[in-house]
Amino acid sequence: MARQNYLFTSESVSEGHPDKVCDRVSDAVVDAYLREMPEARVACETLATTNRIVIAGETRGPATITNDYIAHLARMAVKDIGYEQDGFHWEKCDIAVHLHAQSAHIAQGVDAAGNKDEGAGDQGIMFGYACRETDELMPAPILFSHKILRDLAEARKSGKEPVLGPDAKSQVTVRYENGKPVGVTSIVLSTQHLDPSLTSMDVQKIVEPYIRSALPEGWVSGETVWHVNPTGAFVIGGPDGDAGLTGRKIIVDTYGGAAPHGGGAFSGKDPTKVDRSAAYAARYLAKNVVAADLADRCTIQLSYAIGVSDPLSVYVDLHGTGRCDEAKLETTLREVMRLSPRGIREHLNLNNPVYERTAAYGHFGRQPEADGGFSWEKTDLVDDLRPLAG
């Protein structure tokens, strides 16, 4: 039987974290190609360090996407994040673009041809998860870690808190009683600040109201332990302080460690890559299972082989909370949604340029948007799944 009383911790990082800067740039490149050609192929990696950005990878798309345009997109992403410091400035940093054509050997396995449907862009396993801990059907620790940083970013960008810098990390430890989240035992927040004279206590006075507002009422108590900028000054931030790379925050991007992860990153990849699209599909299915009241927790695993269309396996674990047969549910999920790469893309409209916005504050637990953004958060399969309840 699963433990009912315990502590669990998750972390988030802001859009100005070095790795998230790289995720943002890589996804800006994906969106640029999809905007011009919905069937474009992109596998883009970004490295950022002191006043330098390097963009590399493989693409297949229109010649209108030039290296100069990609460099411009990178600058605009960094500008929107807010970097105008000596060691990392959107206008002054050197940008090198090293993108080349996609391998023909990979393309022949992925492309549809004759009677062969489009195959998966790689082998791998992908997981999706949902639970009843929050209205968003997400684990509470990661959801509120994200919310803290989003609220602080909004305050910074609106001008309410101009002393805050773009780089920040949060960490929330949640106390569970009888399997449900009831409070926060510790809060960790490290945020860049532009005034070198500020102490940790000065920074805490600025951020504490936003943190309290981000958390459910009553979750912060007199016993909650606070660690705000525990190392002291945090003036040098972003890629000037630490080099960043695309794809290094895969647990932050998903469930904060509360669920398994197949290991594949999302950012910089077009939706033919099942690392991205099948992980979105698995979340979509898991969320619909929980929303249909078939379980209080649901983990779904999908597996693929490169060049092969259909998944090799579909696995469902309802963690002892299920109100339906798991094996029957596995069969039904294949029926309500085609889980080939093409089937996933068409069902969730993933060929739209909606990825740059996913690069920070989590790919899951967000609101579906009118233009197709976060389509994997919809719960439109509920009516198809409810009849399985028994």
Descriptive report:
- The chain is of the alpha+beta class and 390 residues long.
- The protein has helices at 18-36, 67-81, 104-110, 140-158, 200-214, 250-253, 274-291, 326-336, 341-348, 382-385, and strands spanning 6-13, 41-49, 52-60, 84-85, 88-89, 94-101, 124-131, 164-177, 180-193, 225-228, 244-245, 297-304, 313-317.
- Helix 1 (18-36) packs across helix 2 (67-81), helix 4 (140-158) crosses helix 5 and helix 7 packs across helix 9 (341-348).
- The relative contact order is 0.18.
- The mean pLDDT is 95.
Annotate the secondary structure layout.
Layout lengths: L5 E8 L4 H19 L4 E9 L2 E9 L6 H15 L2 E2 L2 E2 L4 E8 L2 H7 L13 E8 L8 H19 L5 E14 L2 E14 L6 H15 L10 E4 L15 E2 L4 H4 L20 H18 L5 E8 L8 E5 L8 H11 L4 H8 L33 H4 L5
Parallel strand pairs: 3-6, 9-10
Antiparallel strand pairs: 1-8, 2-3, 2-11, 4-5, 7-12, 8-9, 12-13
Helix pairs in contact: 1-2, 4-5, 7-9
**Helix and strand succession?**
EHEEHEEEHEHEEHEEHHEEHHH
Give the tally of β-strands: 13
Q: Spans with pLDDT under 50 lasting ≥5 residues?
A: none
Measured distance between first and last alpha carbons: 22 Å
Strand content: 15-25%
Major pleated sheet = 4 strands, mixed
> Count of helices?
10
Overall structural class, as computed from helix and strand content, comes to alpha+beta
Calculate Rg over CA atoms. Answer: 21 Å
Q: Order of strands side by side in the largest beta sheet? A: 1-8-9-10
Proportion of residues in helical segments: 25-40%
The average pLDDT is 95
| C-alpha geometry | flat
